[in-house]
Amino acid sequence: MTHAEIPDSTRLLTPADVRRLADRLGVRPTKTLGQNFVIDAGTVRRIVRVAEVGADDVVLEVGPGLGSLTLALLPHVRQVTAVEIDPRLAEALPATVGEYAPDLADRLRVVTADAMRVDEIPGPAPTALVANLPYNVAVPVVLHLLELLPSLRRGLVMVQSEVADRLAARPGSRTYGVPSAKAAWYADVRRAGAVGRNVFWPAPNVDSGLVELRRRPAPSATASREQVFAVIDAAFAQRRKTLRSALSSWAGSAPAAEAALRAAGVDPSARGEALDVVEFARIAEHAPTRAS
């Protein structure tokens, strides 16, 4: 089933609704949890459209908050599994869906948990990640869920604009680093649009961006993901240094790092920002014994 516009009969949260629900629950958005609630119906419609979810999808939504995006997703998908760290919000979400979309209430499953630490998702395996992610944990949450849930075929996440740039950066760019290299292990990643500040309550001090992820096979390598990620971490820990120098601790010495780099076909005088994930995997394959 292809995406269709949300029917006019579907009730979405207005700015007044969001504030009323928050008052009812005694919820005040906190910086600690990175809470910025979406109050613009056009934005959640746009997210659903760009995510290209359909009737067969089980969507994993992280941080549903008061339910703005949840209500926009439910008419289009088989199920929304919402993972919410705040117990008050998790408990209230089914009631909100029951009030605004009673015919769709059976499509919602709520899990009260920290998405960064969850080790399983109950129910049918999620096929898509669609979420407005707290800025302070966006990268680790995305990487954790991609590793935990091989069933996730694609994702669309709304994150701080700077985080969006880092996730989607290509080798050679100023913003390319650990998040972009590690995300590329799992998926093709690209920017999918910008989001202004006024669609949130409270309005954050930064702009936001949409990031699209499409799962693809991990690089073919004899090294494990953990071994490849260790090389990436070492390469960017001192990103201004050459790989020969930056990888010296990882390899045991600068000469050992140079030997591994040459065996992998990588210039020892290059810097980490020039390499793609396939090249990092090749370096990991040629790790000295102590680094493997």
TrEMBL record:
Designated gene of the protein: rsmA
Identify the taxonomic lineage of the organism of origin.
Bacteria, Bacillati, Actinomycetota, Actinomycetes, Streptosporangiales
Name it.
Answer: Ribosomal RNA small subunit methyltransferase A
Asked whether the UniProt record includes GTP-binding among its keywords, one would answer no
The similarity comment for this entry is:
Belongs to the class I-like SAM-binding methyltransferase superfamily. rRNA adenine N(6)-methyltransferase family. RsmA subfamily.
SUPFAM superfamilies found in the cross-reference section: S-adenosyl-L-methionine-dependent methyltransferases (SSF53335)
Enzyme Commission numbers on file: 2.1.1.182
Which Gene3D superfamilies does this one have? Ribosomal RNA adenine dimethylase-like, domain 2 (1.10.8.100), Vaccinia Virus protein VP39 (3.40.50.150)
Localization = Cytoplasm
| Residues that coordinate or bind S-adenosyl-L-methionine | N36, V38, G63, E84, D114, N132
The record's section on PANTHER family has: DIMETHYLADENOSINE TRANSFERASE, DIMETHYLADENOSINE TRANSFERASE-RELATED
Q: Name one GO cellular component term.
A: cytosol
Its recorded reaction(s) are: adenosine(1518)/adenosine(1519) in 16S rRNA + 4 S-adenosyl-L-methionine = N(6)-dimethyladenosine(1518)/N(6)-dimethyladenosine(1519) in 16S rRNA + 4 S-adenosyl-L-homocysteine + 4 H(+)
PROSITE patterns reported in the protein's UniProt record: RRNA_A_DIMETH, SAM_RNA_A_N6_MT
Q: One GO molecular-function annotation for this sequence?
A: 16S rRNA (adenine(1518)-N(6)/adenine(1519)-N(6))-dimethyltransferase activity
Ribosomal RNA adenine methylase transferase N-terminal domain residues are: 43-217
Its keywords, alphabetically, are:
Cytoplasm, Methyltransferase, RNA-binding, rRNA processing, S-adenosyl-L-methionine, Transferase
